[in-house]
Amino acid sequence: MTWHEWQDAPWGRLRYALAEANLSRHLTDHATVLDLGGGNGVDAARLATRGFHATVVDRSPEMLADLPDRVTGVEADIATADLGTFDVVLLHNVIQYDPSLLAPAIAAVRPGGLISVIALNRHAVPLVTAVRSTPAAALATLDQPTQRTELFDTDIQLFTAEEITDRLSALGCTPLAHYGIRAVCDYIADDTSKHANYADLERLELALTARSPYRDLARMFHVIARRDNSMSPRPVASADPG
Ligand SMILES: C[S@@+](CC[C@H](N)C(=O)[O-])C[C@H]1O[C@@H](n2cnc3c(N)ncnc32)[C@H](O)[C@@H]1O
Fold first, then answer.
1. For a substitution probing ligand 1, which of 36, 59, 116 has the most ligand atoms within 8 Å of its CB?
2. What's residue 53's pLDDT?
3. GO: which molecular function terms (predicted)?
4. pLDDT tens digit string along 212-225?
5. The domain that contains 168 carries what CATH number?
6. 15 CB under 6 A from ligand 1?
7. How many domains does the chain have?
8. What angle do CA 12, 93, 72 make, to 5 degrees?
């Protein structure tokens, strides 16, 4: 499956629809949005359509070449670029490739602004594996800190919302909300049915995204936090995830 095919499939569409709905509970009019590792700008384009000024920073020229016109693109490495400061910074499905990018992302949030982090949820991995593979395979994933992703053919690091929330607090942010993205979709083994039932599935996912315990086992977590007014992050006890 290619990146575009993933984005257009029901599970990709849900990922972006849920992120937009969750963010819309927190955004104020005319906010400036910086989408770090924003890829081809699907999150940014949705927010630009709602009237926000959206900029994508990504190191991949191929991704940036695919950006819609209403989004500004900047080719740069998050770790080293001078990013400036924005009202809202998105770091969506990036920390699993490099958790140290959390610190520069927070530095790009203006004091009092918002950081939005989405990543794969480690709590979901044994259950999704049990549904889609075998109980033995699911057992083998328990407590595993990494997983192979076929889409990008690489190993990724797995976190929980609790870990990232703690990290955000340590880096000078106040957590505001924890959502789950795809609390149901990935536990339905029949992918074909998701095309026919997409509208109902999206309504169900939207109803569950903020509800515990459903959100806690969703395929991805979505954490939103406010950067504290002090410009310097609190001291950090350990270096990982940064
Ligand atoms: C899985 S894609 C996610 C894209 C987008 N956030 C989304 O969810 O649709 C990860 C993106 O992060 C970008 N990326 C990873 N590390 C980066 C870095 N250090 N600087 C800039 N971009 C980076 C990659 O080029 C890729 O486009």
1. 59
2. 95
3. methyltransferase activity
4. 999 999 999 999 99
5. 3.40.50.150
6. no
7. 1
8. 85
